[in-house]
Design brief:
By secondary structure, the protein is an alpha/beta fold. The protein has helices spanning 13-16, 49-61, 83-89, 92-95, 107-124, 136-154, 172-179, 196-202, 225-234, 255-258, 327-363, 393-402, 430-444, 448-452, 465-470, 476-482, and strands at 128-130, 162-166, 183-187, 189-190, 193-194, 207-212, 238-243, 262-265, 285-287, 299-303, 306-310, 379-382, 409-410, 419-422. α10 links the parallel β7 (238-243) and β8. α6 packs across α7. The longest helix has 37 residues, at 327-363. It starts with 12 loop residues before the first helix and ends in a 13-residue tail after the last helix. Bound molecules: pyridoxal-5'-phosphate. Pyridoxal-5'-phosphate (PLP) is lined by residues 75-76, 135-137, 170, 172, 213, 217, 242, 244-245, 266, 281, 283.
Length: 495
């Protein structure tokens, strides 16, 4: 497919629309306490509907999204978000709910949450689920807080200071461990999986938990998982399951069966709800019997035919999110669960694994792949051979954008030189897979000049990534300040 992204000189909407609206006192302002009032005038751009539609349509044409192009971002499970879930999530009954409403007026919403929890309990093999965390990393942190409280109750908190992680762990795992106050202890892996000997050396009376995702980020199923589980439990530690990779085992096996104690799932990956750009997400928690009392409050409970929020859980780590969680995402995930059913979930993981192996085999004709040939939902390639031509993995990733595919995850995990991590979930067809194989082959064999100057067909080419990370401009105000645009007009005090 020939891919040409639209290029417009499109200013922020604030700069499109004539003069700022008037700073006349707003009706009812007197009822708002002084300290809560807006300090600057409301700068709604004055535009007609067509201008607004054109503005956002133009921006969308300069965008890269799953609705137009494949998004093989390994470790991220970027799959299609079915429109039926979107339609339902946008209904007034869902959108106009307020978290402060009395419980008797939101019985339907509470029932939906309760039913979703029951469904996820079956999917994970754990008896109890909390939908509160707003992202995977949030779920990780909350789970580690539960681990802490568990050891506090056992009188072992002082000595159980370490969280063990394999070097394939996702970056949020050690970050969550450190934020929760643990010492993150990394162990090297062997052939992409946990090295049991190194694990045995590392565990001991200082171990609070092992954080593991299975299959791991190299796309490999930890086949020694039973031995791993026994080793950690024998040392008195707990096992935390990072469920971001659940798409590979959905309906086939689950962390409960593998002997884990607590897990987070990313509804915004496996359960096809939107994600990207930091959220909103849903990193729900599922816990075994011994950790369930520590789950965040409130819990949704059913008494007779009524549903209510229960805050009376003395061992709980407390409230970790406003309201109950991201209801819109929960609703979409529930629709997803219902529309697939138990058999459908199995088909998802089988298809995702099939896609991944098909692609891995074809792409290894272009670049080498480390570890064993058979993978789960994602796989790694190494761009190391390109270095001889002065080309880096980053250049290849940029060139793939010209081919109309989003770049795969690159340089992660670090144990593979010039790594590319590729995941084509079940929602991608054979035609898309074959198209990607061809695009990949073309990109790999392209001239170093073309690769190093890519992308050529995007609205924005290479940006200064260091600068973007260090000094991100995340609002139109940053842009305005950077361009020395006009400062906001001071607001007259409201009368
Ligand atoms: C394996 C794994 N764990 C954890 C996370 C963190 O999830 P989130 O981005 O929702 O915080 C990710 C996200 O990419 C992941 O791939």
């Amino acid at each position: 497919m020939t891919f040409r992204q639209a290029r417009y000189e499109e200013p922020p909407i604030w700069e499109l629309g004539g003069s700022p609206s008037t700073s006349e006192p707003e009706p009812g302002i007197a009822r708002i306490p002084e300290r809560l009032r807006r300090r600057e005038p409301l700068r709604w751009p004055e535009l007609g509907e067509l201008e607004v539609v054109r503005h956002y349509t133009r921006l969308s044409q300069m965008n890269f999204g799953i609705d137009t192009m494949p998004y093989p971002l390994g470790s991220c499970t970027m799959k299609y978000n079915p429109k039926v879930s979107e339609l339902l999530a946008r209904r007034r009954e869902a959108q106009e709910l307020h978290p402060g409403q009395p419980e008797e007026t939101v019985q339907g919403a509470l029932e939906l949450l309760w039913r979703l929890e029951r469904g996820l309990s079956r999917v994970t093999g754990f008896p109890e689920v909390s939908l509160q965390p707003a992202a995977g990393a949030h779920g990780e942190y909350a789970a580690l807080r539960m681990v802490q409280e568990y050891f506090r109750d056992k009188g072992e908190l002082e000595r159980r200071r370490e969280v063990i992680l394999p070097d394939t762990a996702h970056g949020t795992n050690p970050a969550s461990a450190a934020m929760a106050g643990f010492v993150a202890r990394e162990i090297p892996s062997k052939d992409g999986c946990v090295d049991l000997d190194r694990l045995k050396e590392a565990v001991g009376e200082r171990t609070a938990a092992l954080m593991l995702t299975n299959p791991n980020t190299a796309g490999l199923f930890e086949s020694e998982i039973v031995e791993i589980q026994k080793t950690v439990h024998a040392a008195g530690g707990l096992l935390y399951y990072d469920g971001a990779n659940l798409n590979a085992i959905l309906g086939v096996t689950h962390p409960g069966k593998m002997g884990f104690d607590v897990a987070h799932l990313n509804l915004h990956k496996t359960f096809a709800t939107p994600h990207g750009g930091g959220g909103p997400g849903a990193g729900v928690l599922a816990a075994s019997e011994r950790l369930a009392p520590y789950l965040p409050v409130p819990r949704v409970v059913k008494t007779g035919r009524r549903f209510r929020l229960d805050y009376d859980r003395p061992k709980s780590i407390g409230k970790i999110k406003s309201a109950y969680g991201n209801f819109g995402l929960d609703l979409r995930a529930y629709v997803f669960l219902l529309s697939h059913g138990e058999e459908g979930l199995k088909r998802i993981s089988r298809r995702a694994v099939l896609n991944s192996n098909y692609l891995a085999k074809k792409l290894r004709e272009s670049l080498p792949g480390p570890f064993r040939p058979l993978v789960k939902h994602e796989f790694l390639l190494s761009g190391a051979p390109l270095k001889a031509r002065g080309v880096r993995t980053l250049d290849l990733a940029k060139r793939l954008l010209d081919e109309g595919v989003h770049a795969p995850t690159i340089y992660f995990p670090s144990l593979v030189e010039e790594a590319l991590m590729i995941e084509f979930p079940e929602t991608e067809s054979r035609r898309e897979l074959d198209g990607f194989v061809e695009a990949f082959r073309r990109a790999v064999t392209d001239t170093p000049e073309a690769l190093k100057s890519a992308p050529h067909s995007l609205a924005v080419a290479r940006v200064d990534e260091l600068e973007a990370a260090r000094r991100p401009m995340l609002s139109w105000r940053d842009l305005r300040n950077a361009a020395n645009l006009e400062a906001p007009v001071p607001v007259p005090p409201p009368s």
